[in-house]
Amino acid sequence: MKRQTSNVKRHGGSRLTFDVLRLTLVLLLAGLLALSAGVGMVDRYGLVDQAQPADVIIVLGSRVESNGQPGPSLARRAAHAAVLYRRGLAPAILCSGGVSNGAPVSEAAAACEHAVALGVPPEATFLEERATSTEENARYSVAEMQRHGWHTAILSTDGYQLYRATFLFERAGATIYPSPAQATDGPISALERWPREVREVLALAWYLISHRGTETQRVSISVASLDRLMGPQVERAHALAANGVGADVQTPAEGDGVI
User: Fold this and answer.
1) pTM metric for this prediction
2) The CATH fold of domain 45-242
């Protein structure tokens, strides 16, 4: 009788362990599928250049080299802003980003100096030097927009960052036209951009968890309408990429700087 009871207990314990492992695998698979879907959404969003006439062009900060020069990502974003400015799409450029990692100048200063070197008049550039994250980029830049009476902005950053940055800027109260730096600089390989896109998805997920409420509903609405609103533009972006034209892929091999 005791042996039979012992066998039942062992069998029950094994069954419980199997159920726990199966649940763990199911949850892991669901998480991977959700992450994959998020990365796909972020990637597709970053392919589309939605630049149009606006009050200002905003450049998001990234790493500054120890000599004060912009890192590759920041230089790319500033160069794209300069192109947008020369196209007459906005009369001003606002560079956003504070001092990070012991750099000798702020990300904003390095970006605007690079834009000036590319032909943008100094008087057309403005600095926002407090931000140390994408969320702060949005908060402080929108405050600067309000101070100058600007209502619309073209957002110049790498394509992988556009989805989350646009969401944060719009949440802060601005009308945003996202424009990937790759429209000027050309595409970057998928192997380089996918890790950044994974980080963007995780950062957005963390933001939603820590800001539970209307944000979750707004993102779900945005995701549901992405294909309907952007399908033709995404197809056009893919066609441009196939012909070797910029406006498509992104992501630096060096660090993006802030999250």
Assistant:
1) 0.73
2) Rossmann fold (3.40.50)
